[in-house]
Amino acid sequence: MDFFQDIVIARFNYWIYVILMMIGLHAMIVKNNLIKKLIGMSIFQAAIILFFVSVGVKDGATIPIVSHHGHAEAGHADDAAHPEEGGVQDHGHDEINPDRHANPLPHVLMLTAIVVGVATLGVGLAVAQKIYREYGTLEENELLEKLRSHDG
Amino acid sequence: MKALGLMVVIVVGALLLYAVGDFPAWGDPQSPASQHEISRHFITQAIPETAVPNMVTAVLADYRGYDTMFETVVIFTAGLAIIGILGMARLTDRESLKPMAETKPGDRDMIVINTCRLVIPIMQLFALYVVAHGHHSPGGGFQGGVILGASFILWAIARDLPTALQGIKPRRIVFLAALGVVIYAGTGALSLALDAKLLDYSALHGFLPPAPADGVPNEIMARSHGMLVVEIGVAFTVSAIMFGIYTYLSSMGRLKGGL
Amino acid sequence: MIWQFDLLVLVLLVVTAVISLQVKDLLSASMVFGVFSFLICLLWAGMGAVDVAFTEAAVGAGVGAVFLIATVFNTTRDSSD
Question: Are the beta carbons of B233 and B68 closer than 8 angstroms?
Fold first, then answer.
């Protein structure tokens, strides 16, 4: 039971991310259809972003937004004007415990990655449409045939 | 080819699974990534230095504002690339192999159109709310921009593409996207012109609304307001480009007919 | 995060990824890809990454799946594998 607890529960998330990455990579290499290759690329990207965000997870931590009680003004910064209760609900701005909030840095980097990923998907789909208009097919083997007969 | 691909995938997968054994346990607060000084700095100093409770927005728009500026440029460039790839439709002499489905005006479904008429203004209002409230709740420029773009796409799906394009002409789409990039880079350049570093919003405290008298100093409030200005720029670009990509993808560049 | 729920969503994720790649009809593949996006959004919301989950919900299903469906509509719906 200890082995199960230590090895499997602590790590199974990472195993599944690796499996997802390999599914995406396999699809990009092996599939014949261009759209399937693009879907494989998106799955690969999603798995990598998933892995990256999971690096910032902390047990028992809350979201990286500081909650206010009362008005939304950020108010005075440092000195202990309010007596500290020392709980999870910090009074906003003094004494924010870094262990109680998830790490915001991976979230920021992955926000960029998601939006750039969809822009890349758009460009890939535009190229696929252009190829279809020129050659009438989206299958890789038929495309290679047509290209060879063009040149030869 | 298939066997080779499978073998490569299995080898790489096995190597990665072996490397997973070295990772810290899931959710460990003592892992090196969580203990590093810079993430602790971001968490504890976001409010004192920038007066914004949402740490992700503070890092995205202020501490790492340079990255976000170039990401906006990347999205803009992707939109231009799609317009370049598909927009030359009029110049090719070979017609497409599948004729475009032309829809007659009476074809459209009344339920769909009326539901969209009710839903789209609410979507747009929500998108603007997400952009403006990004400092206190999850949100910000990207999310609001995508929702705004999706509302235009919904209008183009409910009606047909030429009707939706009457409201937002194709040239205006590119203009709005470029305007977003100019807003972002312009804010940075304005800081440069005032003898501070690029994208240092605290130098702009003369132009932005001041903080209330008993609150934080003006320079810190200016960082919060400066973040709002650049988020608006990002929302412009993202919404325009998402709708632009849709118009070109769904009509093969000819901007008639469509989904 | 509750590890049982986590495990269930991850297994569903792998299943939808495999389905999206194996089905022969490209329109179904795009829609299952939208489901994949939503499941990943759930996973991130459980991890505390709310901004990332919001972005993925808006981008993955709202815009990404629509681009795929628009392309499939304009090209062809069947694929050989």
Answer: no
Q: State the pLDDT confidence band at A6, using cuts at 50, 70 and 90.
A: low
Number of domains in chain C: 1
Which residue among C59, C70, C81 places its CB closest to the CB of A31?
C81
Range of the domain at B150: 53-93+102-251
Contact C70 B56 (CB under 8 A): no
pLDDT per position as a tens digit, A10-49: 778 888 999 999 999 999 999 999 999 999 999 999 999 9
Contacts of C70 in chain B (CB under 8 A): 246, 249-250, 258-259
Domain count, chain B: 1
> Is position B247 within any domain?
yes
Please give the Cα distance from A98 to B27 (Å, whole number).
Answer: 14
Q: Which residues contact A43 (CB under 8 A, 6 or more apart)?
A: A20, A23, A24, A27, C17, C20, C21, C36
Q: Does some domain include residue B13? A: no
Domain that holds residue C48: 3-72
Of C53, C62, C67, the CB nearest to B146: C62
Q: Classify residue B77 by burial, with Cβ atoms within 10 Å: 0-12, 13-18, 19+.
A: middle
Cα distance between residue C68 and residue B249, in whole Å: 9
